[in-house]
What we know:
By secondary structure, the protein is mainly α.
Amino acid sequence: xxxxxxxxxxxxxxxxxxxxxxxxxxxxxxxxxxxxxxxxxxxxxxxxxxxxxxxxxxxxxxxxxxxxxxxxxxxxxxxxxxxxxxxxxxxxxx
Length: 94
């Protein structure tokens, strides 16, 4: 039997600090949007879906708290996140 192994064809390149911070900001923005959607869905939920959206809201809130604390330790401010959000929307629209 032939030895089977995987060969890495390309080197894994470490991300720069700016790339890591950008990903963190994107994660915060995405989590905020998920929280907004869960809150909207909760308003119209019926039956067992009420529990589902309750848990989804709680988990999104906890994730958002964690990400914001992480951003603060890296010196990223909430205003910076809003600026990046609006500038990325403008780039996508243009």
